[in-house]
Structure formats: structure tokens, C-alpha cells
Amino acid sequence: MVSAHNHDGGDARPASLILVEQSGAKHEIPQPSCATGIAGAEQAMRRPGLCLREVKVVSQHRAIARWKAGRWGWRRVV
User: Angle at CA 6, nearest 5°, toward 38 and 75?
Assistant: First the structure.
């Protein structure tokens, strides 16, 4: 689901892609970098059939990026 290609040559710190289903179940997927995690998050949000309510990229216990599903699609939250 997530490619290993680093799109912007950015931060090489390991990260985790966290997918939160509508039911509340969480899936943590290790990523080699923050950029790869963000690319994976974008893929997950566009994938039909996934019933997600939140997508996060976390590195060193800190949220790098976070999105929530809303009535009219995904929105990035701070």
C-alpha cells in the first residue's frame, strides 16, 4: 500500500502511519521516513472502501501530520 520512494528527499527519521477505522480500531504501519508516511497517508485517504475516520503520521512520539474524515472529505488538523 505504501511505496518506499521518498518524494521530497526530506526527513529521514523513521515514522509510523496510523490508520484509525470508524470502529476505533487502530493500525500502526512502520515507515522508513516521514515523507514516506505522508505519501502513504495520502494513498490511504484516496483508497475507496477503507472506512477510516483519522489518519496520522507520527515520529518520535510526535504527530507530524494528522487528517480527520468529515462530511465533505478529509481535512488536515493541527
Answer: 15
